[in-house]
Amino acid sequence: MRIAMIGTGYVGLVSGACFSEFGVDVVCVDKDVAKINKIKDGIMPIFEPGLEDLVAKNVKAGRLSFTTDLPNAVKLADAVFIAVGTPSRRGDGHADLSYVYGAAEEIAEAMQEYTVIVTKSTVPVGTGREVEKIIDRLCPGADCDVVSNPEFLREGSAIEDFLRPDRVVIGTRSERAQDVMRALYRPLHLIETPILFTSRQTAEMIKYAANTFLATKITFINEISDLCEVLDADVQEVAKGIGLDGRIGGKFLHAGPGYGGSCFPKDTLALVRTAEQAGSPLRIVETVVDVNKKRKQQMAKRVISACDGSVEGKTVAVLGVTFKPNTDDMRDSPSLDIIKGLQTAGARIRAYDPEGMEEAATMLDNVDWCTSAYEAIKGAHATVIITEWNEFRGLDMERVKTLMENPVLVDLRNIYNPEDMASTGIAYSCIGRHL
Predict the structure, then answer these.
(1) pLDDT tens digits for 368-385?
(2) How far is 178 from 360, CA to CA, in rounded Å?
(3) Which helix (H) or strand (E) holds 312?
(4) Catalytic residues
(5) Of 3.40.910.10, 3.30.200.20, 3.40.50.720, 3.30.10.20, which CATH number belongs to 2-198?
(6) I need a surface site. Which of 202, 421, 429, 432 has the fewest CB within 10 A?
(7) What does pTM read for this prediction?
């Protein structure tokens, strides 16, 4: 089989490479000539563990290629995947579908034989119907089916998520389209991965419902952590205690500075707007969005409090700026609000992140970027851990104490044990735990 993947962003590039690993002939398409040329040279536009090697392997095998020629890629494809961005629309929070609809128009003009058009991008319920209308308008009577196939990829472990997923969701009632999609995902069927066929609008809803539920779970444990601090309970033990309940589960019950990234912030907001428009508001999700926004802003106040109520004229070392480890993604990262809040309060920021500093430098001003954690810590009046990269989990605390002007460590990811930290001579602050 042969597919065209429209868009070489996070979803498109990972999905295209993984489909080629299944033995499918994949052509990835992007309008950005410079990006395509870099990928051809083996330079990935994103950091994702294992992606560079996976791309190189399948390019060498002749199953994966890259082009800016959309019409040629589409006319030869059995299925065309739309994997373009759907950012929050400025001003109202709705998903911006202009890239999706633009891709649909170009696909309509290029199709020649029966084609399955698959929306891989995260889109509001009803988008597939609109794509179908675009195809009908530009290519009346076209022999095609429009399918929803949402992605469930976690940044930092996306390849594993694609190759060994919890489930595959495919939204179509067309038996012909189902046969094509079954063939594409046959390797997963062989390892007994659940493949769920639904209506198109149900598949679209599943994606938003899943992300919103996970964001709610994160926000819930964050609020519980605040209550734990007031009542002298330990949020880590609370999370373990409730996570052992099979109805709840332990994933996404880690207290921290709030969720960020490319999915949860925009998807929760987009679902809120969709619900408002449909006249069926989601009050829980509205609260989640509001609480998460305020939490990220409150984290700077935690650091200030740990510094005796003022960071005016002080140096604060920031360890980790990406929204999570094993990615270079800075979108809606808590670090953006935290760093800006500290700067507003008069702090000088020295920061280090293993992968995210290049992107972060385009979003943050007046930050001294360092080459290691210890370089950032040197001379600091306080150190704050924002992203739980593995290399921050084993810091030499004696060295940290010696390097710092004032030994204060604010651990917003709870990666250290308060009891262990008590003997280090470092003033340690964490989230929702006994001190």
Answers:
(1) 999 999 999 999 999 999
(2) 42
(3) none
(4) 263
(5) 3.40.50.720
(6) 202
(7) 0.94
